[in-house]
Automatic annotation (TrEMBL):
It is found in: Periplasm. Residues 81-189, 233-370 form the Cytochrome c domain. Binds 2 heme groups per subunit. Involved in methylamine metabolism. Essential for the maturation of the beta subunit of MADH, presumably via a step in the biosynthesis of tryptophan tryptophylquinone (TTQ), the cofactor of MADH. Keywords: Electron transport, Heme, Iron, Metal-binding, Oxidoreductase, Periplasm, Peroxidase, Signal, Transport. It comes from Pedobacter chitinilyticus. This is Methylamine utilization protein MauG.
């Protein structure tokens, strides 16, 4: 009798497995939508795609492919005097107080211009409290840092150079340090017509170099341009979910998959170990407590760990948290009345009810918008007079 029960149970399990396998094989997604139907919706110009599920009041832009790179123009830019100066400065630890830390210590070309750490490590081996964002496509940003406290690249460079837990360099002393190196004076002369180096020259040159750091075209870009075989069935399902049930497009839209805005997605950790008040530290508006800038998702699978605090190093785990709705730390009406600083999670964050298969489909789509890493070579020699 026991053998008979085991045989029946095994047979049912096998039948169930075959049924599930067949369900995928005959062309359905995990949501029961025919793959052929999805292809008929998306294998056409973007302007003809179905409208995504976007909440009322959300300003969004449709996806747009990155253009083909003009190699001639790119190399001409890289050889321009300002960019050459900026690249040398970016990779030179002389910009730090210890002469040991460069901009590239955290923004490493080998790791998609981030550092693969939860939070940055700087001067005196001090830890920061935020994750290092990638510099890819930084020229397209409208604000900088997770809290948006800088509005230009030239202004942005000041903070990491002078922060004690980063490069710990006195900005007033840096020009004199560089003016003591004839090779740098010659580079500044070519770039700006004077050999008297100021911090303004440093900021402008670093910004000029960073504007050259762009993502390469991904398979999704090629799909957008009509190469429809670039996305497999799983990735196409993920694209559809990204625009519909998963709700990602409410914040991650446009050519760079970001709305350039600020949101509290429920990870403020208010009055707890990892508390970070985010945008509030800039505006002092209680409504901004816990808000952080929406990061671009281009090359996202190359730039983990993720989120402003770098606490998530597993993309499936991260999407599981989003799937929950992120409402675990939002203030009730009574809590908000008692404490105006108590953060309220953005209403865009809602429980998604994604299945495990659907989460994996979204991850597959994120892989398709991640391009092959381009690893820029560091300068073979830095500007020094004794070379």
């Amino acid at each position: 009798m026991k053998k008979m029960k085991l045989f029946v149970a095994t047979g049912l399990l096998t039948a169930f497995s075959l049924l599930h396998f067949s369900f995928r094989e005959i062309g359905y997604t995990s949501g029961g939508i025919k793959i052929d139907s999805l292809r008929s919706l998306y294998e056409r110009p973007v302007a003809q795609w179905p409208k995504p599920n976007v909440d009322s009041g959300v300003k969004w832009k449709e996806f747009k492919a990155l253009p083909e790179m003009d190699s001639k123009a790119y190399f001409a830019t890289m050889e321009s005097a300002q960019v050459v100066l900026g690249k040398n400065l970016f990779f030179d630890p002389i910009l730090s107080g210890s002469n040991q830390i460069s901009c590239s210590s955290c923004h490493n070309p080998q790791t998609s211009w981030a550092d693969k750490l939860s939070v940055s490590i700087g001067h005196d081996h001090a830890s920061g409290n935020r994750n290092t964002p990638s510099l890819l496509n930084v020229k397209e940003r409208k604000s900088f840092f997770w809290d948006g406290r800088a509005t230009t690249l030239e202004d942005q460079v000041k903070s990491p150079i002078e922060a004690h837990n980063e490069m710990a360099m006195n900005l007033k002393e840096l020009p004199a340090k560089l003016n003591g190196i004839k090779a740098y004076k010659e580079l500044v002369k070519k770039a700006y017509g004077t050999d008297k180096i100021t911090f303004d020259h440093v900021a402008k040159a670093l910004a000029s170099f960073q504007r050259t750091l762009t993502s390469r075209r991904s398979r999704f870009d090629r799909f957008l341009d009509g190469e429809y075989k670039q996305l497999n069935d799983k990735e196409l399902e993920g694209l559809h979910l990204f625009r519909t049930k998963a709700r990602c497009i409410n914040c991650h839209n446009g050519q760079y998959f970001t709305d350039e805005s600020f949101h509290n997605i429920g990870l403020t950790y208010y009055k707890r170990k990892y508390e970070d008040l985010g945008r509030y530290n800039v505006t002092k508006d209680p409504n901004d407590v816990g808000k952080f800038r929406t990061p671009s998702l281009r090359d996202v699978m190359n730039t983990g760990p993720w989120m402003h605090n770098g606490l998530f190093d597993n993309i499936t785990g991260l999407l599981n948290v989003y799937n929950s709705g992120m409402q675990m730390n939002t203030a009730t009406a009574a809590q908000k009345a008692a404490d105006p600083m108590h953060p309220v999670t953005d209403p865009l964050m809602k429980k998604l009810n994604l299945t495990r298969d659907e989460i994996q489909a979204v991850i597959a789509f994120l892989e398709s918008i991640t391009a092959t890493q381009y690893k820029m070579h560091r300068p073979e020699q830095l500007p020094r007079d004794n070379r």
